[in-house]
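FAQ: What does the model actually see?

It sees only this:
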Amino acid sequence: MAQHAKFNYKTLEELKQDITRIGVNIPLASDLGVLGQSLVIDGKIVPNRLAVNPMEGCDGTADGRPSDLTRRRYERFAAGGAGLLWFEATSVVSEGRANPRQLMLNAEVKNDYAALLQDALEAARKAGHQKPYTVVQLNHSGRNSKPAGVPAPIIAANNPYLDAKFSSVYVISDAELEKLEDTYVAAAEAAADAGFDAVDIKACHGYLMAELLGARTRPGPYGGSFENRTRFLCNIVDKVRNKLGDRITLAVRLGVFDEVPQPYGWGVDKDDYHKPDFAEPVQLMQILWEKGVKLFNISLGNPYYNPHLTRPCDIGGYVSPFHPLEGIQLLLNAAKVMQAAVPEAAIMGTGLTWLREFAPNVAAACVQQGWLKLAGFGRQAFAYPDFATDLLTKGAFDSRKVCLACSKCTTIMRDGGCTGCVPRDAAKYAPIYQKGREGKLPADSDRVAEHI
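And it is asked to produce this:
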């Protein structure tokens, strides 16, 4: 395990030398042409292999509708030329919102989402791009719920490693979970009505769905055995398919390694929780594929507990226990394992942003070698929304535009503000960042206009 270090590469050769020195398996390619190739998912075209990952802006209205700032983000993403836009986590119920400004999708607001989507597609058209493939993510924040701005955790099962930070927690009942399945279906129907190509049943990052996957200590039909722990996700997939048929494609952003000790962790080696054991995640992937899920976005960890797994960075709330290249290897290897398990599925890999202008060399190699079919960029899209256009027209990322992995976008979220890139979009987000650091962000959820 190598010591954490900041990005300090001037050339691709320097990066290659460090990959060799540290001993990580990260492929590199000089020919980036594969990233411009199209991909077909469930009969619809993804114009290229570059994608915008779901990144919450925390800038919705009090009732979960997109704000002007939300529209600005997605218009910038769409105009940037990525072949796939994965719209951020939208809560299916008010009590499951991660913050007072999280977006929320239901029948009452579906027209607002239809307008948001059409504005984004129009921005892509005006920029001269083909129509991007669009996915919207459905979520319940579970133990990370803060609908009024203060913790109000709703958990799948007690977990001594995660419960300690809360004064009290509420274990959701079997009856509530069964009812929530139908709420997800209603939200998926709203997504189909709004015109999205696919709907993502989010199951990662320690939120309710992901926590159920590791709920070995939970009694009843939603805990204990593998069949029970995957029941909630599988039931929702089945119900969406039965209700909507081919009106919308199913996707899952799946966490495959929690790094939480057994019996609480998912995808974790029983003897060493710092090591993944992908046997159950692979089994679930194969089941979901058979049930009709066509698109997967593979991730790791919990941004509230071990964010170094989710987003390798230069600076964060703490120093990562290992080098960012080791974190990138973990993320890419997870995608590789899942792609090999379900070769026909469209697997999106993540964790590339820290590599700055050399990310395309890794992404292209991973696609060429069959590790994944799509390369997802999250923080990079905040900082550099036109990354895809630059790569596909100029052959490279612009090093003056890339994300600096400084974690300020995350800091804004933790401070309670609307988030974006502080260094690269400073006119919009530097004042919000400064107010948050000074503890001056508005506390009430309906004053989103003060952030815009």
